[in-house]
Design a protein that fits this description.
It contains seven helices and 15 strands. By secondary structure, it is α/β, with parallel strands linked by helices. Strands 1, 2, 3, 4, 5 and 8 form a six-stranded mixed sheet that branches. Bound molecules: beta-D-glucopyranose.
Length: 250
């Protein structure tokens, strides 16, 4: 039974669990610790190392991180400390824990989990998974294969970064009704045959996929949209699954 430890790094919390890769189920209890204040690379990597050693884990390790990640290196930092840009996350984690991790974008991780074990199971063709939270993450799949680092949350909407106007945080900040907020979903790609899954951002207290009946009816896009099903475990599960995925983090 192939297993891997999945670590999901967020702005407020870092979560980890060992995952059974064939079922997508957690085989150890989910552990959550606070993200160190300031969220700088050194302290965050130390925290990851602490989680790995507490789990007494020596096998494959996957880390989901909220940035563009290619070859283990972070290339953006929209909602995290700017010191991450250019940081070789994989090398730092390897130095700290002795195992070379697979590092990938957090939305790509959530997407992998949803496609293989959640709401996207058996949905063929083009599928877009969106995570709505502090920012907007995106994971695009073509017949089950991930197209990494799409970052659709940074498309332009009314002259702004879309995530600034359409993330869950924007709804809270501007005290928008569900209908007003859903209208901002017009930034979503309008491709006719593109099913989309609206996923949670585990870092947010309110998870919009839990209350999807309040806003999904107002989403006025052609493709069928459905709520994600794995909720706050998707990042961990996808991070673990990435260790066996040929495209994740590339
Ligand atoms: C980042 C993405 C991330 C998303 C969700 C965005 O601000 O640019 O890399 O996937 O937030 O965390």
């Amino acid at each position: 039974m192939a297993q891997a430890l999945g670590v999901d790094v967020g702005g407020t919390g870092i979560k980890a669990a060992v995952v059974d890769l064939s079922t997508g189920e957690l085989v150890t209890e989910r552990v959550r610790v606070e993200t160190p204040k300031g969220g700088k690379p050194g302290p965050v990597v130390e925290t990851i190392a602490g989680l790995v050693s507490d789990a007494k884990w020596e096998g494959d390790l996957g880390v989901a991180f909220p940035a563009v990640i290619r070859g283990g290196v972070a290339f953006s930092a929209a909602n995290v400390d700017k010191h991450w840009i250019g940081t070789d996350v994989a090398a730092l984690v390897q130095e700290a824990v002795g195992v070379k991790p697979t590092v990938l974008n957090d939305a790509d991780a959530a997407g992998l989990a949803e496609i293989r074990h959640g709401a996207g199971l058996n949905v063929g063709g083009v599928v877009l998974v969106l995570t709505l939270g502090t920012g907007i993450g995106s994971a695009l799949f073509v017949d089950g294969t991930l197209v990494p680092n799409t970052e659709f949350g940074h498309l332009e909407l009314d002259g702004h970064d879309a995530e600034r106007k359409a993330a869950e945080l924007a709804r809270e900040r501007e005290d928008l009704s569900w209908k007003q907020w859903a209208h901002r979903g017009r930034a979503l790609p309008q491709t006719r045959r593109q099913p989309a899954l609206a996923g949670p951002d585990p870092a947010r207290r309110r998870r919009v996929s839990k209350v999807s009946e309040k806003w999904l009816p107002f989403i006025d896009v052609r493709p069928p949209v459905q709520p994600a099903s794995l909720r706050n475990e998707a990042g961990i599960v996808g991070a673990a699954m990435a260790t066996a995925d040929p495209v994740a983090g590339r």
